[in-house]
Fold each of these.
Amino acid sequence: MHGELADAKNGVPTGVECRDGIFAVRSTVRRFNYFWSVPIMPNARLLLSYAHPDDEAFGSGGLISKYVAQGVDVYYLCATNGDVGTMKPEFLEGYNSIAERRLAELDCASQKLGFKQVFLLGYRDSGMMGSETSNDPASLWQAPQEEVTRRVVEVIREVQPQVVITFNKYGGYGHPDHIAIQKATTDAYLKAGDATYLTNGQQPYAPQKLYYSSVPKTILQVGIFMTRLRGNDPRKLGANKDIDLVAILDHIEPIHTRIDVSQWYDAWDEASACHASQLGARSQTIPTWLRRQLAPWQGLTRIHPSPNGARGYETDIFAGVTLDERRGVTA
Ligand SMILES: [Zn+2]
């Protein structure tokens, strides 16, 4: 499975309707104002390593929008094509498969978020834990971890990100693909800088910081309360009924870093709207206006360097980072 690294625009159909209008205008104005009010960060590179087309927007859309506006080159590694996501039949009109639709949605979100490049590893979506699809030999869950690690190392050495973000050990909400890419990314983060670990003539590159994405506890607690209030089961949310808010809360890891995204909710929602076929969980939990009030920040767990009991919250994932220039890729 050591294929060529793919760009999101290669072979991805376009044509997903993105929500425009007032949100787009507001976020464009905000980006413009922000551009003039904050220092631009030359040579800053961030890699998000997740599993599906939608993880980037739903989980990290605010943070991505903010750093792109600061001039950071943000890259997305998406391990699967989202082949088995559940969706209503109308979303498949004009598409040959679920994966094709979801990659088109990713293309839409990528343009909204402003990714520098998207890397598709092309594994098959494993579906829910214990399902038949998770036994598919082409699925990410069945792929040897060493193989996935190697492919993530290849992307890290190509992109040379100073900062890497992936899921927490529970994979955010226990999805097998999330767990698989978390393990591979954590492993790859350490191996990418090891000169004895060889990948097609690439030079070693050691990123400086590794984070796991998180969700504010308050958001989860209020989400569980409101879901029950509406008569829904907080353990079975989303288009695929596989999101368990109670289990997410049980597995949450300490938050060390809070990124203020209060100005970026519109951009975040705009990117999320691209993934229209997968929007179920959001509409079943907390409205944006309330999320904005409860947590105007996105939380992260800092894995490396260890926070070592530091007090207070870090407010910038690039704090303390040396912004080295990107070198030639091959040795
Ligand atoms: Zn996912």
Amino acid sequence: MEKQELLVLPMRQKTPYNWSAGIYGSKFFAELGENAKIYANKCTKCGFCCIYPRVVCPRCSIRMPYWPDWVEVGPGGTVRLFNIVEQPFFNPNTGENLKVPMTTGLIELDGAPVVLTHYLEETDQERLRLDMRVEAIFKPKDERQARISDILHFRTIE
Ligand SMILES: [Zn+2]
């Protein structure tokens, strides 16, 4: 029998897993879900603020304060960057087709120099602009699941 080289076929495998949010992340998401509040933690040495709260400052590598020494931010904020998606696509986590146009923004939240990327309610290109004021719109309490998706989107407030 003639020796034949075997083919190697690439294959993607779906591997469900659970991801621990850790003690800082757990508190952050619990506050979103239970109280509809957004918190950042602030480095006691350099003042850098983090969303999502981190254990170690990414700038100076010292341990960041834990709850309750966090800074409440938002729900208001200012859009510093945005993009509009007009090409139809689906959520890779759920397979659900997403509505287009869809807009995301980099939002500097009131209360600390910190930004969060999230959906913007406004999708009209004529009305979108940098520095527009927005506020977080949360799901009703009985629908929140301690996830970033507890914030539906950011709505224009001016
Ligand atoms: Zn620092």
